[in-house]
Design brief:
3 domains; globular; mainly alpha
Amino acid sequence: MEKEKGYKIHSVKYNLIMNVILKMSSFIFPLITFPYVSRVLGAVGNGKVSFATSVIYYFTMIATLGIPTYGVKICAQHRDNKEKLSKTVKELLAIESIAMLISYLIFFVALFAIPRLQEERTLMLINSATILLTVFGVEWFYQAIEQYDYITFRNLAFKVLSIVLMFLLVHKTEDYILYGAITVIGTVGSNVLNIIRLRKLVDLKTKAKLELSQHIRPIMMLFMLSASTMIYTSLDTTMLGFIKGDADVGYYSAAIKLKNILVSLVTSLGTVLLPRLSNSLANQDMSSFNRLIKKSFDFALLVSIPLATYCVMEASICIDFLAGDGYQPAVLPMQLISPAIIFIGLSNIIGIQILIPLGKENLTVISTIVGAIVNVILNSILIPAYSAAGAALATTIAELSVVIVQLYFIKDRITSMLDIKNYIKILFACIIPIVILVINNMTIHIDSSFITIIETGILYFVIYGLLLLIMKENIVKEITSNLKSRLIK
């Protein structure tokens, strides 16, 4: 059967390991590339690439609609029937192709009509390859048939290739266009392999009549979700580029780079828990569902609160280490956007792990639309006055508004999903390290930002961990008991 399919379905454990490797790469590679690029290109060059990437993201979203999410679900349902699977893939590709043509049409009109885009026409054209490669890369298909090893190894290979090309080719500020091209290679270049391999896995020559209309409604619902999410997560960079300029975008990108890496860490548990949550609901096992949600809240707050606190306290040294001396204007934006790490962790639990498994996708969409509206209004007011700092504050408030709306939607369920006593332990465990960190910063000064980060990081997080251990915080208690049982065996 697997030979007929042309691929092998691995165990859940194997797929989980592949996902963990892929997640880890998303932490490690930016920490390798960003310090080098920020110093070589400077705030202006870095800002140009970040601005172009943010603009192209809108057109990519139009071209893909809600298919990246919908495609995984519908193709997974038909993966054991090659005829139905092939028909479904062709239907989704047909819809994406039409949307892509519309997207490119709008893009070229905008490129020649908007002076701000004309200024970097070459960079914009190079980055627009992302639209084509994303559409025909059909990443959703490979996720649906659970080819996580293929996805992971292919992704890692092209990330390594992009790093090699970056060190070989990017040496001065004027190389920002080359860096833009290398970014495309590292992000979606591997999708070329997807296109080539697709013909071996599905019958693209099937004569079955295509039925596109059946997919439109669910695709558009998910498109609304992705569009509204994109507005309050990416619009800040685009508006900053239009209203202020490349240097401000460069400073802001330095502030949000670390935030995005840490957000990936905070939300990583959701990928693992989502199938279990859906299974618990399918079996009407609400006690198991609530237990898993409690664990998810524990994990999100346990990780996000100290990370956000540390980033606020040590923003200057973090920016100096990641981006260099010329990025000090990024310090305040980083301090203002760091609390968003907490809010995103909470909204990920409520929106993705609670509302969607409960079949309340529409409520998730509403909450993100509220966040988008808040973000647009605040960006319009704050960016002209406060530049990157205004964009950071607008994003944090928008993320908070999403959480508030979602909490309102689940107000009747929330009490059974929370453990307030445990959250008090986490908050208390954060207070003592803050005091010690303040005293340390007043009495000890080290010139090296790298050594300072190591020193303050160890000081803060070791004390935090010890306090959690003493107070027997839920997750720490579970980890220590598991370790003890293994040692006894």
